Amino acid sequence: MLRAVIGIALAAALVALPHGLSFSQQEILVFLTINVLLVASYRLLTLTGEWSLGHVVIMGVGAYASALFTKQLGLFVPLSMLLGALTAAAVAWALSFPLFRMKGFYFLIGSFAAGEIIRLLWKRFRDPFGGPKGLKGIDPMPDFSIGFYDFDFFEPVSYYYFAGTVVAVCLWIMWRIEHSPVGLTFHAVHWQDKLAQASGIDVRAYRTRAFVIASGFAGLAGALLAHYIGTINPNSFDVEVMVFVLTWAIVGGTATFYGPILGCVMLTVLNEIVLRELGFEQMRPLIYGAVMILSILFLPKGLESVVERLVGPRRARA
Amino acid sequence: MSPILEVDGLTMRFGGLTAVDGLSFSVAEGVIHGLIGPNGAGKTTTFNAISGFYRPSGGEIRLRGQVISGQPMHEVARRGLVRTFQHSTLFAELTVLENAVVGTHMVHRPNLLAAVTGSDRAARAEARERARAALDFFGLAGQENERAGDLAHGHQRALGMAVAYAAGPQIVLLDEPFTGMNPEETRAMMVLMEKLRDSGVTILIVEHDMHAIMGLCERITCMSFGKLLAEGAPREIREHPDVIEAYLGGTHHAA
Ligand SMILES: Nc1ncnc2c1ncn2[C@@H]1O[C@H](COP(=O)(O)OP(=O)(O)O)[C@@H](O)[C@H]1O
Ligand SMILES: [Mg+2]
C-alpha cells in the first residue's frame, strides 16, 4: 500500500518534472533518462561478478545498428530501436566466446580491447559506419498522438516522456529478472562459482546470459540516444563515457538495484546544475575522478549504503 | 549390488607431483563408503577429479557405467553426483534459505521468460519448499533468514550438506563434513547421514574423525601417497597392518 502511494507520487513527480526546467535542462533530463538505463543495465552485467569496460561500446552498437536500420532499410524508428537492441545483444553473445575464457582482471582488459576493436571498425569503414565523422541526419522518432497527449519530438519534453516510458519498462524487466530464480543464480555465480557449479549451474552460460541481456538494454539506450541527437560518431562511445558509467556505479554502489541509478542522478545533478552554473564544465573528467576517489575512500559502499542505513535493511530474493 | 561409482586407474598429476596414482575402487549403491588416508594422501584431489572440478590426467570414472571423467562439474552434478567442499564453501552473502534454493537449481531450472512474466510462481514456491525441507533435514529450519556467512562453523558445514541435498543427488561426496563440529553435533550429523543413506542416497565420505568413519561406513578405502593401500570393512581396515603403518609411520595426524 505504502509502496503503491510512493510509486504513484514518484511517477507524478517525474511527469511534472520537465515543466519546471529550462529547455537546455530538459535536454539534459533526456540524456539522464537514457543514462539511467545504461547504468542499470551495467549493474545487471556486474551481477555475475565480471566488470566490463566495453559496455558503452555495446551501447554504441545499438546506436549504430538502429541508425543504420532506418537509414539503409527505411525501417520504422521504434522497430529499428528494438532491432538495434537485439544487434547489441547478438554482438555481445559473439564476444562472449573469447571473453568468457577470461575472468576478473583479464576479462576487464579483454572487454576493453573488444570495445576498441569495434570502435576501430566504425572508424575504418566509411561505408556503412561513416568513418571518424560517424552518422549524421539519423531519422528522428516520428511524431504521434495518444489522444490526450501529442508527441512532438522536436520538443525534449515529448522525447523525455517517450524515453522515460521505455526506460521504466526496461527497469521493471531488469528488476523482475534480478528478483527471480535467474537473478539468484547470477548472485550465486558471483559469490561462489565453485559451489554454483557443484549445484549443477553452468557458470559460463549464466555469465553469458547476464552479459547478453545487459548488452541488449545498453543497445536500446544507444538507440534512444541516436534518434534523439541525430548524429553519432565513434567518440560518442569512447572510454571517457565508460569512466562516467563506472563512476556512477561505484559512487552509487552496486549492491542494490537503485544504487547505480542514484549515483547517475546525483552526479548528473552535480555536474549539470552545479558545475555548469559555476562554469566548471570543462573539468568534468577531473571532478568525476576526484568524486570517484573520494567515494571509494569515504563511502566505499556507495550512496546506497547511506539510504540503506536510513531506511533499514530489507532483503528478499528468489 | 552393482557399483554406482567406479574409479578406474585414476591418475592426477600437478606438474611433477603425482597426487593420485592409478587409484581404483568402486562404491556400491546405497552404502556409506569411507575414503581415508594420511594428510596429503590425495583424497581431496580424488574428489576433485571425480566431481569434474579437475580433468584427470589418466584413468576413467564411471557413474552407473557411464563415463563421466572429462565432463565439467555442472554436467557431473546433473547426472546425479553432487559434492561438498572441504572448507566451508557457501554463498556467504546470501541468506541460508537462498543458499538452499540455489541447491534446487537442477530440480527447478530457472526460466528467464517465466521470471519476467511471473508465470513461474508455482515453481518458485516448490523450490522454496524443497529448500526448506533440506534445511529442516539438517536442523537449520530456524535460521533461514540469517546470512550464511554469519552461521557458526558447524552450521555452515550442515548448510553445505543441505545445499547438496536440495539438489536431489543419487550420490554425494562429502569432504570432511565433521570439521568444526563438537562431538554432540558430530553424533547428530552421523544419524542424519544414516537417514540420508536410508532414503536411497549413496554417500562417499572423507573424514579424519576415525571414530565417526568406523561407526558410519559399511566399507572403507584407504589410500596413501596417491595409491590404494587397503580396502575392506571397518574392522579389516582397523586391523590392516599397512594402514596402521601408514598412520603411525609418517605423521600421527590422520586426515
Ligand atoms: N591444485 C594443486 N596443485 C598442486 N598440487 C596440489 C594441488 N592440489 C593438491 N595438490 C597436492 O596433492 C597432494 C594431495 O593433496 P590432497 O588431495 O589435498 O590431500 P588430502 O585431501 O588427502 O589431504 C598434496 O601433496 C597437495 O599438495
Ligand atoms: Mg583434503
Automatic annotation (TrEMBL), chain A:
- Coiled-coil segments on the chain, per record: none
Q: Which domain of life is it from?
A: Bacteria
Q: Which InterPro entries match?
A: ABC_transp_permease (IPR001851), LivM-like (IPR043428)
Which positions, given as ranges, span the membrane? 28-45, 52-69, 75-97, 158-175, 210-229, 241-274, 286-303
Keyword Hydrolase on this protein? no
A single Pfam family it belongs to is BPD_transp_2
Q: Does the keyword Phosphoprotein apply?
A: no
Q: Which UniProt keywords apply?
A: Cell membrane, Membrane, Transmembrane, Transmembrane helix
Its main localization is membrane
Classify the protein's membrane topology as the record does.
Multi-pass membrane protein
Localization (cell): Cell membrane
Q: Which PANTHER family does this one have?
A: HIGH-AFFINITY BRANCHED-CHAIN AMINO ACID TRANSPORT PROTEIN BRAE (PTHR30482:SF10), HIGH-AFFINITY BRANCHED-CHAIN AMINO ACID TRANSPORT SYSTEM PERMEASE (PTHR30482)
In its UniProt entry, what is this protein called?
Branched-chain amino acid ABC transporter permease
Annotated source species: Paralimibaculum aggregatum
TrEMBL record, chain B:
The UniProt entry, under CDD domains, shows: ABC_Mj1267_LivG_branched (cd03219)
One Pfam family for this entry, by name?
A: ABC_tran
Q: Which domain of life is it from?
A: Bacteria
Taking every annotated instance into account, which residue ranges of this chain make up the domain ABC transporter? 5-250
Q: Which GO terms describe its molecular function?
A: ATP binding
Keywords in alphabetical order: ATP-binding, Nucleotide-binding, Transport
**Stored InterPro entries:** AAA+_ATPase, ABC_AA/LPS_Transport, ABC_transporter-like_ATP-bd, BCA_ABC_TP_C, P-loop_NTPase
Mind telling me which PANTHER family this protein's record contains? CONSERVED COMPONENT OF ABC TRANSPORTER FOR NATURAL AMINO ACIDS, CONSERVED COMPONENT OF ABC TRANSPORTER FOR NATURAL AMINO ACIDS-RELATED
Q: What is this protein called?
A: ABC transporter ATP-binding protein
Source organism per entry reads: Paralimibaculum aggregatum
